[in-house]
Amino acid sequence: MDSEKVVNMVPKMKMSKSFITFGLVIVLLVILALDAFVIVNAGQRGIVLQLGAVRPIVLTEGLHFKIPFVQSVVPMEVRVQKSQSEQTAASKDLQIVTTTVAVNFHLDPIQVNKLYQNVGLSYGERIVDPAIGEAVKAITAQYTAEELISKRSEVSAKIKETLASKLATYYMVLDEINITEFKFSQEFNNAIEQKQIAEQQALKANLDLQRIEIEAKQKVEQAKAEAESLRLQKQEVTPELVQLREIEAKIKAIEKWDGKLPNVTGGAVPFIDVNSGQ
Known about the structure:
The protein is α+β, with helices and mostly antiparallel strands. The chain is 54% helix and 23% strand. The strands form 3 sheets. A 3-stranded antiparallel β-sheet has the order 3-2-5, with helices on one face. The chain has a 3-stranded antiparallel β-sheet with strand order 6-7-8. A hairpin with a 2-residue loop joins strand 2 and strand 3.
């Protein structure tokens, strides 16, 4: 009886093992199928590693096939990235300048595999930030502190040119650079303020001097005009004009007289020749 049970159990055990084996095969196939495909998202590129070695191909956006368990894909961002930092440097006149710089850059989509192979994923700390600092210091040293302010666009253009060359060595492209702020020492700021005050005072003094000169010229011209007027009047005086002025004066005196003689005695009574007006 026991032997019969054992005989009956053998086929069942074989079936169970076959079912388990079939299940394992299915699971393995599913895993292989899932690991055989990779999706590269928008704005990224895929770096293909085959047993740890970087392959000379770059996967673009979309679905791609890879060898399961042999190849792996590392995604890398190729969109525009931003790096902002403060860089302290010395100007041409040895003033300490702290420059706030904002840099926009992106990785070269075609050669990101070389960047990954030579630098890795920490390219910002290893390459971008040091390159920004070196470019800012190199260009800042070519200008005085005042020129850094007055020639800001020119300084920015030179920093951009220098930084673009450095980043291109590591397969990165510089898009834009913006100098958001220049900071100087308090002593330099005070010196600039005093210089502006002196320039304003000098300008005011110059304007006052010009005003005084203009007023003096106006007075001279006015005196010349008055002298010329008197000269012309003097030329026009004739005996007939003198006699006319005397007659006009006598007429005004008669018009003002009220017909009464003065009450003061001891003096001569004024005589008015009425017929002389006829």
